From TrEMBL:
One of its GO terms (cellular component) is large ribosomal subunit. GO terms for molecular function: structural constituent of ribosome. Keywords: Ribonucleoprotein, Ribosomal protein. Belongs to the bacterial ribosomal protein bL35 family. GO terms for biological process: translation. This is 50S ribosomal protein L35. Coiled coil: none annotated. PANTHER family: 54S RIBOSOMAL PROTEIN BL35M (PTHR33343), LARGE RIBOSOMAL SUBUNIT PROTEIN BL35M (PTHR33343:SF1). The lineage of its organism: Eukaryota, Fungi, Fungi incertae sedis, Mucoromycota, Mucoromycotina. InterPro entries: Ribosomal_bL35, Ribosomal_bL35-like, Ribosomal_bL35_CS, Ribosomal_bL35_sf. The keyword Kinase does not apply.
Length: 87
């Protein structure tokens, strides 16, 4: 009888029953470095394609690629799962 009660619930040395805690969700480290949450629930990211092989690009195109843009709806849906504690 005594052993059966020990197997069903664990009692801590202080006399209080210990609760099991749920594990925390992990954030995707690649998404963490590339996307930044804004205050209204969107995500901001930098434009891609400007690091190298851009000698043939016009100045207008290089300037356009240097800015930041907001993530689209498909990316936002994936980012909500990849970054659970951001927004």
């Amino acid at each position: 009888m005594f052993l059966a009660s020990l197997t069903t619930s664990f009692i801590s040395p202080l006399g209080q029953s210990a609760r099991t805690m749920a594990t925390k969700l992990k954030s995707h480290s690649g998404a963490k470095k590339r996307f930044f949450p804004t205050s209204n629930g969107n995500y901001k990211r930098w434009q891609v394609g400007i690091r190298h092989l851009n000698a043939s690009f016009s100045a207008e195109r290089v300037n356009r690629l240097s800015g930041s843009v907001l993530a689209n709806n498909t990316q936002k849906k994936m980012l909500r799962r990849a970054l659970p504690y951001s927004c």
